[in-house]
TrEMBL record:
Keywords: Aminotransferase, Pyridoxal phosphate, Transferase. Residues 37-384 form the Aminotransferase class I/classII large domain. InterPro entries: Aminotransferase_I/II_large, AspAT/PAT-like, NHTrfase_class1_PyrdxlP-BS, PyrdxlP-dep_Trfase, PyrdxlP-dep_Trfase_major, PyrdxlP-dep_Trfase_small. One of its GO terms (molecular function) is pyridoxal phosphate binding. It comes from the Bacteria. This is Aminotransferase. It holds the Pfam family Aminotran_1_2. GO terms for biological process: amino acid metabolic process. The keyword Transferase applies. Belongs to the class-I pyridoxal-phosphate-dependent aminotransferase family. It is an enzyme of class 2 (transferase). Its cofactor is pyridoxal 5'-phosphate.
Amino acid sequence: MPKVIEALATMKNDQLATILPSPIREIDANFSTIPGILKLTLGEPDFAVPDHIKSAAKKAIDDDDSHYAPAWGHLSLRNEIAAYLKRRFQLSYQPETEVLVTVGASEAIYATMHGLFNPGDQIIIPTPTFPMYEAIAQAMGVEVVGINTAPDFILTPEKLKYALQTHPKVKGVMFNYPSNPTGVTYDSQQIQAIATVIAENDLLVISDEIYAELVYEGEHQSIAEILPQQTILISGLSKSHAMTGYRLGYVTGPAALMKHIGKMHQFLVTTAPGPMMAAAEEALKHGQDDATKMRDIYQQRRDLLLSGLQQLGFEAVAPGGAFYMFVKIPDFLNQDDVAFIYDVAEKVKLGIVPGSMFGAGGEGYVRLSYAASLEDLQEAVNRLSQYIALETTH
């Protein structure tokens, strides 16, 4: 095992050194050492990839799709992404210049921020939210302007206007809905109201809509439909088709902006892998029923978990989308959410995530992923009930 020479021992990217590794994965790794623990920690669908999608990947391998694809992805897939977005969300993009295939939505977020922002720029990020957004911004020296959306976890025009009044140099807004971690989503009137403020201030909006197919009531409306000239839309197949390991995402937006994102993408990964693109093309072309079936099962799980948590005294609102429950710890229990989740793991072997890891407004909350079977979710409720009994009989 090599030991670095003393002269290099402190060599590092100073900006990156200020950022912790993914706190959610760190907690998940810690919990994995506990025998018999039931984890509701990661946003990892528990479904298998549908067989017809797996067959498409296998066929691509058998057909020797093993060489470099075009940097922006196979044109056939970009055509299918454009067709899917038009069919489902009334969005219009030119596949050749406005659709980019990425290695997951995570790479899409990184390439977008690095392609369009400079050190010292400011970006608004409403919280609680997915921690990666702020981590990427910080790593590249972009200043984050937070908007605490608690207690309803909704970004309103009023909150957005106030942030812009106090930070007039802001260049963009990072928007995620349905939301990780809260499950909050927005109807067309709410989206229109937010879009009006963004348009009035000539802001770029980076809209992460990876959970768009997992909306339970009503239809998802993309902000890109209202503000196509100001929106970079990020999505992928990981959540809708349980394809997290296939690492296939995409970015769409105006060609003048996409050329910079595409350049950064090419420097990062060169291109996405061919067999995975074949699988994504099949999912988009013939997999709408797959996403619908998964969504309906998630809704059943949501309802079971929500009912169980409310009966135990946890304050929770039914998520409008995604597969996360963001709940307030009851006042009669420890309000330090980090201490709380470790105590729960130790005493009743249940792994959940502290709300404070998702930014301001998440303190005193916990997130549970209901990408798990009904049996596991009922067992999670039972273990929380056991924990409350232990804590309230002292």
